[in-house]
Amino acid sequence: MKRPIVGIIGNSYLINDQYPAHAGGSMNSEAIAEVSDCMPLLVPADPRLVSVAELMETCDGFLFTGGRPNVHPEEYGEAATEAHGAFDRARDAITLPLIRACVERGQPFLGICRGFQEVNVAMGGTLYPEIRDLPGRMNHRMPPDGTLEEKFALRHAVRFPGGGVFERLFGADCVMTNTLHGQGIKTPGNGIVIEGTAEDGTAEAIYIKDAPGFTLSVQWHPEWNAANDPVSRPLFSAFGDAVRGWAGTGTKPVLKSA
Fold it and tell me: In the chain, N or C terminus with fewer CB closer than 10 Å?
């Protein structure tokens, strides 16, 4: 049977500081292919090369991935500072209108890390430039040293309200996750429901209230060890079910808060 297509939003890189490339982490493709059971398709996030309309007709769902550049603060009405870090305006120009179009149309997507932040900004929300600088917040950034396994190791708990979307999905009101981000939600966008929070109050899991499709997004990186992790696997599995529902090859699931 033909697998539905998930567009994986790529990032721009310079190989050897010279050669421009669009790329995506292989673990994102592996999670989509092996756990969601969909065909991964890397998307060059640049409006010179692709349009939102073309992407929505080509792909059945979208994975908004993490990435080192941050959403430009002009997208939520603030001036850029050194704390905001690097930017990718071409990706902003594709992902933000694509998210809004998917919400309106009911086309499923899953947001991860930067993708989680993009969803909030697309819906009119704002971001803190650096979580670790806020009083009472811990450092959520990736450890600068160590192996890949150590950098993606589980580092803090995320709690969910009973009866919510994520608690039902994971079968638990508290899970352990990795953490590799510097920014975070300041004010939630229109319809954004924050269901999961870290021990320091940082938003970690959201969905869009009354959206007709799958809109779950998380601040951590569930693509790491997705086939074996007890939190990552049900998230990517549910996303795959939603994509198949959209593609017409299965039953469209309804994920609403109780």
Answer: N
Per-residue pLDDT of the chain (258 residues; tens, 9 = 90+): 789 999 999 988 888 888 988 889 999 999 999 999 999 999 999 999 999 999 999 999 999 999 888 999 999 998 888 777 788 999 999 999 999 999 999 999 999 999 999 999 999 999 998 888 888 888 778 777 788 888 888 888 999 999 999 999 999 999 999 988 889 999 999 999 999 999 999 999 999 999 999 999 999 999 999 999 999 999 999 999 999 999 985 444 545 443
Does residue 236 belong to any structural domain of this protein?
Answer: yes
Residue 177 in any domain: the answer is: yes
Q: Catalytic residue, from 59, 113, 140, 204: name it.
A: 113
* Residue 195 lies inside a defined structural domain of this protein: yes
Indicate the number of domains in the chain: 1
Q: For residues 241 and 256, what is the distance between their CA atoms, to the nearest angstrom?
A: 15
Query: Is 221 among the residues known to form the active site?
Result: yes
- In the annotation, is 59 catalytic? no
In a domain, 203, yes or no: yes
Q: What is the CATH number of the domain that holds 91?
A: 3.40.50.880
Q: Cβ(116)–Cβ(140) under 8 Å?
A: no
In the set 72, 84, 181, 221, the catalytic residue is 221
Q: Which of the 8 DSSP states describes residue 87?
A: B
Residue 214: domain span: 5-247
| CA 61 – CA 55 distance, rounded (Å) | 9
Burial of 48 from C-beta contacts in 10 A (0-12 / 13-18 / 19+): exposed
Clarify whether 74 is annotated catalytic: no
